[in-house]
Write a structure and sequence with these properties.
Blueprint: E1 3-6, H1 12-23, E2 27-32, H2 35-45, E3 51-55
Parallel strand pairs: 1-2, 2-3
């Protein structure tokens, strides 16, 4: 299975890209700053085996340390 990493997945373009990639059969690791919108994205994709989310601000130098370590 191919995996796509989508940053900014809580915005319009990122949200659309993440859902479309999942529809195409890819697993999606989606990041964004808003945990509620990431939860909405996960519900929209609907398959927990196809989506993982991480609420993180990638402009913060210390933030990537909080990224997921396993799917």
């Amino acid at each position: 299975m191919q995996v796509a990493v989508v940053t900014g997945a809580t915005g319009g373009i990122g949200f659309g890209c993440a859902t479309r990639l999942a529809e195409m059969g890819m697993a999606v690791l989606a990041t964004g700053r808003n945990a509620d919108k990431l939860a909405e994205l996960a519900r929209a994709i609907g398959d927990p085996d196809r989506v993982a989310t991480c609420a993180v601000d990638l402009t913060d130098d210390d933030a990537p340390g909080g990224s997921p370590t396993s799917w």
